[in-house]
Amino acid sequence: MNPRPASGRAAAADRLARADRSRTFPPLPVRTGARGLFAESWWGSAWLDALETTALDSARLARGRTYARDGHVDTINVTPGRIVATVRGSRPRPYSAEIRLRTLTDQEWDGLLDAIAAEPGRFTALLAKKLPPVLAEGEVRLLPGPGDLVPRCSCPDHGRPCKHAAALCFQVARLLDADPFVLLLMRGRGERELLDALSRRNAALTAREARDHAPAAGRPAPYRRGPGTGGEPQAADAEQDSAAASGGVPGEQPTPGEPPSRGVPARSALAGRPRPPLPPPLPLPPQPGRPPALPDGDGLPFDPATLEFLAADAAARAHACATAARTPGPGTEHLAVHSPFPALPPWEDAIRLTATAHPTAGLTATTRALYRDLAAATGRTPTDVARAVAAWRQGGPEGLVLLNTPWNPPAGDFDRARSALLAADLPSLRPRHNHLTDPDRGIQLRFGHDSRWYPYESEPGAEDWWPAGPADPDPVGALTTLLAR
């Protein structure tokens, strides 16, 4: 036998099990209406009761409630025994808050599942995202009690809990209101795993009840073969064997002259059935999303700021590809959609990533550190990197080409630009290659291969040119904008 299929099925089952025991929730919306309760269900209220009985400082608890209400809690990840989220505080980088809760033992889970399966209404309530009250009254403590919630946080506050962990607890209460399976996951079992286990228990219970009630209902016992080894089959057995061999039903005789029914393969029976159309795709957001800010982590094998850059770039590229796929040109509806991002050399791609990950970022401490790292990796200076980033933001790949590579444009638009500038009573610029320059004023226009004009500026009398503003197809508009800076 070939073990590969079994191994593949086992690996797939293992992946499903791991995915079932980890759930990630996006940041919850800011609560409006000021002072409403965080928990509306009885199990959500019980969760908050455990938090409030654990808290040693009501002021921290109130501050955490405000943080949660104002949306300071980012993405929440729930796994057995652990809830983690980043919470934005008063500092630029968020903190990593965590709540731990003891998972149930296998014996406790057996008792809990038996209690749910004992009454069909309890299983039905769970399917409707309601927690049966009986689960809080049994021997197994499903809901946390005083001291069961163990908060942790990367902030310097050693309160129990600090305001960041308290904010996480308040948001978890909202998750529990919507889905009590979150609580069951914290106790150690995922939703799919629980529903499968309950379905098996219900099936076994139904079969046992049917078997126990069969004699009482007066059902005749099926005919069996005669006693002893090799006994002759009874009449009912012979009838069933004959029906099974012919593909018919016991007790029915085939019509004379008709071949016995052999059944129809499922594939053939379903081949003619129409399939419902796929639902329409969700609308694209106007802008790509921003990844959540990562907390500082000493000893991590990666730099959180670099990971944020990569995540932001991946979101931007995915958004651009999805936009290109939804807006085909005329006559290209059936053609394959290619990526709108051209293949770039490492230096240009590094500049693209740096320029587009935070397109509006100024020269902050994070960007300075990024420029230093990129300069060291490419053998350039941080000033070279900053200038290249400005050129990319000005005009993309063409802006980066014009930064260091002059060219000789053919006669036409470049020559007519000087006449247009003089007619608009603008300063006279000296031509050289694709540049029009006034060194005394420190202004320059560069003509690109895309027939756009790229404004540059420098200190008067110095040759230290920097991109200054967006490109413009009109030289008069580009120079007017440059002079107005």
UniProtKB/TrEMBL annotation:
Residues 138-173 form the SWIM-type domain. Residues 206-304 are annotated as: Disordered. Keywords: Metal-binding, Zinc, Zinc-finger. It comes from the Bacteria. GO terms for molecular function: zinc ion binding. InterPro entries: Znf_SWIM. Residues 215-247 have a biased composition (Low complexity). The keyword Signal does not apply. PROSITE patterns: ZF_SWIM (PS50966). Pfam families: SWIM. Residues 274-294 have a biased composition (Pro residues). The keyword Metal-binding applies. This is SWIM-type domain-containing protein. The lineage of its organism: Bacteria, Bacillati, Actinomycetota, Actinomycetes, Kitasatosporales.
